[in-house]
């Protein structure tokens, strides 16, 4: 009986609309930020969890629209004459929109997996950990939608409730020090090179499953039956797993070019190494042989607090990967590389204006960076070639040492 009703709902109910909405929604968020997942299995799993920020409101809206359908069509009394339990249509409607929404995710997810498989060079242990919580979280969202739709069956209930859930899911991310911030799909705690223990994923899957049960039981007015799963969900919310996440050393292991000067990226970004090398090698070769200048360029994710490597220049690959696996912003990549050649996080002098015209030390650094870009000022080009290179080495050494007095003394004018 329930199976036949479910098949009818899947063919003629809101399931098809839910599938279309979730397919479009997932495609949009995947295309909007490919750097989060392209070429990284762990990144794809983590980003799919982040996509719950958009997908959960869609599932909730689908559940609310489905649950309010009979009242909007004014067929509640007619359906009440049918000899079947009242919870049958509610449960089958929820199952239909949930299955429809999950089926809508299949095609864009398969395409994303194929694009990742083409480029990925590392998976890592437990990279798939966040995945099981995704369908359970979406089922809980649609169950909440059913509960809201049965109580408020208006035409504007679904979009208003979806928007409210979107805001609610994003809020914990604004309180990163809260122990409940990890409940938000938008939290920065999840990264492709961070391993969360299996106990955390099990805890969150159980908590979301209990919430789904509570919402469905409340939707069918089984108040007392909802007490037990509600109490268990509350207990889990208070008793967060004690295990802490840890960085995956395999993901952050360096992969470098064979020829010197070396260009190194983390293993999860190995597919970007040819493009990164093409962008940064000219700058490294320009510095070759100058005392005190870097002899290698290394991705910033491999940098550790307090780890000083005088022969290393750092660069960032944040938001750099494109859908095809290339570097998105070559100019920004060069900028992060050049900025690491000098000032290494030095505090600005209290009397500094930051104006090269008034501040000799800033003027000195600016001249060095213009030299790196191949457009040195006339005062620098007036020096013999070897003198230029010696001057560049002294400038970068003083800048890294935060020696503003030495930089002022090196001013060319």
TrEMBL record:
Going by the UniProt record, its keywords in alphabetical order are:
Membrane, Transmembrane, Transmembrane helix
Q: Does the keyword field hold Membrane? A: yes
Taxonomic superkingdom: Bacteria
Q: Does the keyword Membrane apply?
A: yes
Q: Where is this region: Disordered?
A: 339-358
Task: Give TM regions.
Answer: 12-32, 44-65, 94-115, 127-149, 156-175, 195-218
Q: What name has this protein been given in UniProt? A: Uncharacterized protein
Protein species of origin? Actinoplanes flavus
